[in-house]
Design goal:
This protein has 1 helix and 11 strands; from the N terminus they run E-E-E-H-E-E-E-E-E-E-E-E. The chain is globular and about 45 Å long.
Length: 129
C-alpha cells in the first residue's frame, strides 16, 4: 500500500523559510524513481492549487515546474535513494499560508491535481506578518 507522509510545516514570520519533506512508503527505490512527484496547497475557502512538480527518470529526470506565485522562492527536490521529495520554501509570504500536500504521479509530471494517483494527508504552513 502506497503511503505519503508530509512533515516540516509550521508557523513562521514573513520572509523566513521552511522545508517540507514527504516520505513515500509501499514502493521500493527502483520503483519510486519512476514516479513523478508534486506539491500542492489548499488555503481556507480556496481550491487546491499546484505548487511544484519534479519529473521521474522516465520523463526528463529532474525537470521541475513551478507555479508562477512561487517561482524563484520555492525549490522542489527528490532523493530517490530515500523515497523522499522536499520543498524548500524561502522568503515566505502571508499568501503562502495553506495546507501543503505531496502527491505521486504514476504518469508524467503535471500541474493538474486530477492526474496524481496518491496523496499525503497534508501539513499546515502558516505565515504571519
Amino acid at each position: 500500500q502506497v503511503q505519503l507522509v508530509e512533515s516540516g510545516g509550521g508557523l513562521v514570520q514573513t520572509g523566513n523559510s521552511l522545508r517540507l519533506s514527504c516520505v513515500v512508503s509501499g514502493v521500493d527505490g527502483s520503483t519510486f524513481r519512476s514516479y513523478s512527484m508534486g506539491w500542492f496547497r489548499q488555503a481556507p475557502g480556496k481550491e487546491r492549487e499546484f505548487v511544484a512538480t519534479i519529473a521521474s527518470i522516465r520523463w526528463s529526470a529532474g525537470t521541475t515546474l513551478y507555479a508562477d506565485s512561487v517561482k524563484g522562492r520555492f525549490t522542489i527536490g527528490r532523493d530517490d535513494n530515500k523515497n523522499t521529495v522536499s520543498l524548500q520554501m524561502n522568503n515566505l509570504k502571508v499568501e503562502d499560508t495553506a495546507v501543503y500536500y505531496c502527491a505521486l504521479d504514476l504518469g508524467g509530471y503535471a500541474r493538474t491535481s486530477a492526474l496524481y494517483d496518491y496523496w499525503g494527508q497534508g501539513t499546515q504552513v502558516t505565515v504571519f506578518s
